Structures are given as structure tokens and as C-alpha cells.
Amino acid sequence: KYIHLLYQPVLEKQVQILAYKRIMQQAITNVDAVLFIDADEFITHESMNNGDEAKLLKQLLSQKNVGMIGINWRTFGSSGHEFYNDKPVVERFTECSGGLESSTNSFLKSATRISLSQYTGPHKSDVWPEFSRINTQGEKSLILLPLMKKDCLSR
Length: 155
Prior knowledge:
By secondary structure, the protein is an alpha+beta fold.
């Protein structure tokens, strides 16, 4: 449970992909699983209890046959806000896009067990054929369905 800061100079056009590759080179012998989360991204559990998301991912990744967990990605815009307020992010941003996004990489993030993966990417990983890709409900999944707009509004 630590953070290791990796300096990534801007050297070429796809600097983010280069950073992922560098992280994987360091992680391959030191880490069991990886999940790439950008600074403006968050993982939350439907319970909204702090730590439940980590417990769920740890539980799912502990299953011997699971190589990757696909986590649906919700894209939030401004939620109509024009000015800053100091409410927590999950209270301010409650409206997200529904249906399929136009970008092929805006569909999910993947938590991947490195040793079971042929390719590990931020959005989808290819695992060896004998291992499964599942969704956050623990169901085997090749294609994960998008969240509908009704799922994005606050409770």
C-alpha cells in the first residue's frame, strides 16, 4: 500500500501509453494486479461506503480463474455547474452520459492480474484463454453493457 511516483517527460505524442508501458515494466515482477486510473477518475462502489470498491476488487481478483475485471466507465460532464463550489465531487457531479460513447476506449477500465495477461491495457486486457474476464458482478463477460443515463443520477 504505497504510491510510487514515476517521472514521465513529454517525449512523444502518445506519452500516456508510454507511461503505461513503463509502469508495466516495473510492475511485472512486483505487483499481482494493476488498474490504471487517471487523476480525474474515481472508483466508487454502489454502497458509497469508502473502501467497499477495494474489497470487491480484491475478492474478485482472488478467484483463481479470474484474469481481468471490467469496470464500467461513466463519463461525467459539468452537471450544469458554471462556477466552483466546495461540495464533494460525488455530490456535485451526478449527471453522466448514457448509451455507448463514441470513443472506443471510454467503455471500461480493467483491473488485471498481470501474470494471467497476454496484454495489459488501461481499458481492456487480453488474458490467457484458460482465464476469465468478468464484470463487477462476477459474471463472465466478453462485452460489457454500457450504463444507462438513469443509472447516473444521484440517489
